[in-house]
Specification:
It contains four helices and eight strands, in the order E-E-H-H-E-E-E-H-E-H-E-E. The protein is globular, with a radius of gyration of 16 Å. The protein is α+β, with helices and mostly antiparallel strands and about 190 residues long. The structure holds coenzyme A. Coenzyme A binds near residues 47, 111 and 119.
């Protein structure tokens, strides 16, 4: 049985001169998590949010996240460097296990701008998938990206995802519709 240990380190590696730590979240992350997510919103990065969050909202979100991790709904890891949150990577189930769809989960990732292009996303994703396989016995991972998100397309290709379909106008960016690419990665 999985026991959630806040802040537990999953993996550490060096990238571009920084020690990168992948670890479970803890409630004390709240301020750093808010700063991280609001910087992505400021940048208008391709995340599934459009409004900046307050400390109060982030605290509520973090409580919910902790609960979801304990319930086996999410595996969510903080990517940390220089003592701050610089990224987030997660696997999310759509229904509480046991369920007829507990053999797959959805993948999400975002990195702070100054930490991109160092291979961090690829290494963090691979570590996350290993965890999904060992903890949840996942058979595959599903993902999506906006059709014009070149960084995400490259990352998914490197990770071995296969494109399943293209959903016309599946997403919006700057008030314009964009096709959404839907993918699957086999974990066997
Ligand atoms: C997508 C994202 C996580 C990639 O992070 P990253 O750490 O830069 O990715 P990596 O360094 O591991 O790179 C993986 C591959 O993608 C390539 N890549 C990364 N950014 C790229 C870009 N902007 N254009 C083209 N290729 C890119 C890398 O060169 C690398 O390929 P290589 O090993 O052949 O050089 C990051 O750009 C990000 O957080 N973007 C904002 C949020 C977002 O779009 N999330 C994904 C939503 S689906």
């Amino acid at each position: 049985m999985f026991k959630f240990v806040p802040s537990k380190i999953v993996k550490q590696f060096e990238a571009g001169g920084d020690l990168i730590t992948l670890r479970y979240p803890k409630m004390k992350d709240v301020r750093g998590a808010m700063t991280f997510i609001n910087a992505l919103l400021e940048e208008r990065a391709r995340i599934r949010m459009s409004k900046k969050v307050t400390l109060r909202e982030e605290r509520k979100w973090l409580k919910g996240l902790t609960n979801d991790i304990k319930q086996g709904m999410k595996i969510s890891l903080v990517i940390e460097a220089r003592g701050s949150q610089v990224g987030s990577v997660a696997l999310v189930r759509r229904a509480k296990p046991p369920s007829p769809i507990d053999h797959w989960a959805e993948f999400g990732i975002a990195l702070a701008k100054q930490f991109r292009h160092r291979g961090i996303a690829e290494r963090a994703s691979r570590a996350l998938f290993r965890l999904g396989k060992s903890l949840w016995k996942l058979k595959f991972v599903r993902s999506t990206y906006d059709a014009d998100n070149v960084a995400s397309a490259t990352l998914h290709r490197k990770l071995g995802f296969k494109i399943i379909t293209r959903i016309p106008r599946g997403a919006k960016y700057n008030n314009k519709y964009i096709d959404e690419i839907s993918l699957v990665k086999d974990l066997n």
